């Protein structure tokens, strides 16, 4: 990752395609392993997936890809407020209920 001042951080970037590929490979291998170990009894009913990128040293990645994503339009799926309930909806209402813009524009 890159800090706001441009310093290289020792934390992997969430935008790193090689890291994503390695995570996918590790997770699918783990699932195959579980499947072979639980083949007869079928005791595993779900998996809780957690992937904390651990952004130590910065609140986000300021590399060029991270900045481009930050500066882009928020995808429609994240702007859906049809339910009208919840913390994000409350924040959205409080700041003016904007329907288009970047994350910074929508939630600041």
Short description:
The chain is mainly α.
Describe this structure as you would to a colleague.
The protein is mainly α and 108 residues long. It has 2 domains: 71 residues, no CATH class; 36 residues, no CATH class. The chain is built from 4 helices and no strands. The longest helix is centred in the first third of the chain and has 21 residues. The chain is flat.
Q: What's the count of strands?
A: 0
Strand content: under 5%
Alpha-beta classification: mainly alpha
Q: How many domains comprise the coordinates? A: 2
Low-confidence stretches: none
Number of helices, counting only DSSP H or I runs of 4 residues or more: 4
| Radius of gyration over all CA atoms, rounded | 19 Å
- Residues in helix, %: 25-40%
Principal-axes geometry comes out as flat
Mean of pLDDT: 83
Q: How many strands, which pairing sense, and closed or not: the largest β-sheet?
A: none
Order of helices and strands: HHHH
Give the N-terminus to C-terminus distance in angstroms.
24 Å
List the helices and strands and how they pair.
Elements: H1 17-37, H2 64-71, H3 87-94, H4 103-106
Q: Which key phrases capture this entry?
A:
single chain; 108 residues; mainly alpha; 2 domains; 0% strand
């Amino acid at each position: 990752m890159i800090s706001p001042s441009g310093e290289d951080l020792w934390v992997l970037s969430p935008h790193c395609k090689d890291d994503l590929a390695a995570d996918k490979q590790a997770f699918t291998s783990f699932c195959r392993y579980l499947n072979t170990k639980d083949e007869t009894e079928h005791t595993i009913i779900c998996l809780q997936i957690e992937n904390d990128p651990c952004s130590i040293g910065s609140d986000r990645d300021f590399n060029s890809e991270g900045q481009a994503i930050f500066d882009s339009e928020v995808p429609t799926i994240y702007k859906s407020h049809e339910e009208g309930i919840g913390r994000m909806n409350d924040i959205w209402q409080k700041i003016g209920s904007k329907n288009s813009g970047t994350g910074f524009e929508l939630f600041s």
